[in-house]
Amino acid sequence: MAKQPEKKKDDVETTGHSWDGIEEYNNPLPKWWVWVFYATIIWGIGYTIAYPAWPGINQATSGLLNWSTRANVAEEIETFAERNAPKNTALEEVELASFVEETDTELYAYARSSGAAVYQTWCAQCHGSGAAGGVGYPNLQDDDWLWGGTIEDIHTTIRVGVRNPDTDEDYLRVSEMPAFGADELLEEEQVEQVVNYVMSMSGEPKDASLVEAGQEVYLDNCAACHGDDGQGDTFQGAPNLADAIWLYGGDYASIRETVWNSRNGVMPQWQDRLTEAQMRAVATYVHQLGGGE
Amino acid sequence: MSQAEPEQLYAAREPIFPKKVYGNFRNLKWVIMIVTLGIYYVTPWIRWDRGPSLPDQAVLLDMANRRFYFFWIEIWPHEFYFIAGLLVMAGLGLFLFTSALGRVWCGYTCPQTVWTDLFILVERWIEGDRNARLRLHRQKKWDFRKARLRLTKWVTWLLIAMATGGAWVFYFADAPTLLVDLFTLNAHPIAYTTIAILTGTTFLFGGFAREQICIYACPWPRIQAAMMDEDTLTVGYREWRGEPRGKLRKGKLDPEQGDCIDCMACVNVCPMGIDIRNGQQMECITCALCIDACDEVMEKIGKPRGLIDYMAFTDEEGERAGKPPKPIWKHVFRPRTVLYTGLWSLVGVGLLVALFIRTDIDMTVAPVRNPTYVTMSDGSIRNTYEIKLRNMHGEERPFVLSLTGDPALRVEIEGADTQTVVVPADTALPVRTYVVAPSGSVPAESDRVEFRFWVEDATSGERAFKDTVFNGKGN
């Protein structure tokens, strides 16, 4: 350890404080240090006058500079909206199909990332933040599409919604499956038969003996929309019944419920809430999630 | 308890007017000043060709593109451990030098010391040496001469300060472009703000605060006491030789008197304003100027040099007892310095090895967990991975993705029919990748299986891999 040279006692100024013979050296602070301390106090007072600080009964003082994080955000959003305006114009004019071919353009990257933001704001509530969907809400990552999986199909679905009563274009994305049981279109026995037949198309039926009779019921009542082989029809939004994907569940009870009461899920139309560029962006985003055609 | 009140709790700064000095240490300090300032001002202007797509500045901290260029080395953010390692080495290096040579960093190379030295040089050129400056300081009346001298000095200081702050920003952008932008007022506000702040601190710290920074603001003087011991070489006074001090009378030295003639030369040259004859003290930055000053006087009065000298505490005691002096290498080679050297070299060698074995291609794999898997219409199970392919070459390269593991698994890339992706030069490209297990296969039915992603640079054959997992329906 370093040895301090002994200090001569009379060299050192003390504060004059002495406790049981222990004296305190006087090591005075530099004066500028004290002035810096006073300066920080004055700065602190000035700060509370310039910025929101002192609490009141309803709200704090707003400060002379009228600074607010909320206003800052609004300003920033405006700045970015202005900066993105040319890109949005380009997005509104671009041939959407070209996005499937060319994905290394700047516009595509913009559409995808802004589409992701639109998705998380407006779509994630039903389809899930990872787009995995849920019972009654289609999974957007798989390759099964009720109304078609091309980027234009997706864009149309977003624009007019599904079974949306307010749309002017009611020839699009509107169809209705009858409630075969509830409306007494089929006997209870027939419903059981057809459910077993539908199950046999993609897997094992609950009761194999009813399959044959079910096929007859199917061809008479269901094949017009769902197709002879259950392949579905995206023009009518009729689901593919022969694949591994079930929107409302593929077990006996779920399918029986679907046939008996029908489902007819809905989705809002977004053309009155989102801009054309936003809808195109989110269509681009959804298309590249892994199921786009 | 005594009731006497202290005279002053706060002390005004005592102005210091260091006198000009000649000698070996002063010359060494001039050389070090020229070299360090030269490195600082010149480095951003050195060019280094890295091909068309990369900047040609030899040393560049490219914050916007998150790259650090140092001549032939390019550091990416994921290689920040190189910077961390260099900082560790810098720290250990300081420990080593402090334990061997005391505050040699403070005395010779610390920017505060170098710039203060430069500012004092300017001050001396404009206002004259110590006595002239003292007179000017004591002159209360601001006549034309005083105003002119002060103004010239401050303006010169300000210009140096601006050059200091100005040089700093060139490390963060292309220097020639930024220089033009700065003068045409097209540079980013951050550049001007940085220059303004650094100009202000340089002007204030070098011109007015000086030793106050070392004594009150810098933590290093307090820390380094822990690295010094009785064998550390520091600037000291041979009290046994100098005392009792006394004035030279009629050019003759009283035989009873020590070698110190109390000429105050050592005090007058000290930039910290202390008296080294009081022994080692916290304020001393070991700049060794007092050694030069004292040696000059000792030669004049015909006494041996070294009344004030680089020495260790053990030397002082040994010499007093009449022992032969300890050789310098024995002061320097101690377990402590050997340990610091060992640690320093260890980190250095580690960094060098890491530098040589690093690959120019790399990838990161982030499995998408929302959802863990997707059932496809044919019943197959698909997992998604956000892969980043890193091409650190100066030109674009085709990368081929593949996997090893369960043979049922196959790789697909979003939006592509092949497994080849062209990654642009000096880019980390995000690629949405799928791994598909057919319906009924082992990975599709199991909880999770492990496999390995491979990426191969089709041009050079260089490969890299990452291990990850596939989640099946059992998950």
Report on this structure.
Chain B: One of its GO terms (molecular function) is metal ion binding. Chain B: It comes from Aquicoccus porphyridii. Chain B: One of its GO terms (cellular component) is plasma membrane. Chain B: Residues 249-279 form the 4Fe-4S ferredoxin-type domain. Chain B: This is Cytochrome c oxidase accessory protein CcoG. The complex is a heterodimer of chains A (293) and B (475). Chain A has 293 residues and is mostly helical. Among the domains of chain A are: 77-168 and 269-293, Cytochrome c-like domain (Cytochrome Bc1 Complex, Chain D, domain 2, Orthogonal Bundle), CATH 1.10.760.10; 176-263, Orthogonal Bundle (Cytochrome Bc1 Complex, Chain D, domain 2), CATH 1.10.760. In chain A, 45% of the residues lie in helices and 4% in strands. Chain A is built from ten helices and three strands, in the order βββαααααααααα. In chain A, strands 1-2 form a two-stranded antiparallel ribbon. In chain A, strand 1 (14-19) and strand 2 (22-25) form a beta hairpin. In chain A, helix 2 packs across helix 10 (276-287) and helix 6 crosses helix 9 (252-261). Chain A starts with 13 loop residues before the first strand and ends in a 6-residue tail after the last helix. By secondary structure, chain B is α+β, with helices and mostly antiparallel strands. Chain B has three domains: 24-226, no CATH class; 231-320, no CATH class; 361-471, Immunoglobulins (Immunoglobulin-like), CATH 2.60.40. Chain B has 17 helices and 15 strands. Chain B has helices at 24-42, 81-101, 104-109, 111-127, 130-138, 144-169, 175-183, 189-209, 211-217, 220-224, 239-242, 265-269, 289-300, 313-320, 328-332, 335-357, 442-445; strands spanning 10-11, 59-62, 67-70, 73-75, 234-237, 308-311, 361-367, 374-375, 381-391, 397-404, 410-413, 420-423, 427-437, 448-457, 463-471. Chain B is elongated. The chains are: A mainly alpha (293), B alpha+beta (475). Chain A binds chain B through residues 1-5, 11, 13-19, 26, 28-34, 100, 103, 128-130, 132, 139, 141-144, 240, 243-245, 288, 290, and chain B through 1-13, 209, 212, 216, 225, 228-230, 232, 278-280, 313, 368-371, 374-379, 382, 384, 414-415, 432, 434, 439. Strand 3 of chain A pairs parallel with strand 1 of chain B.
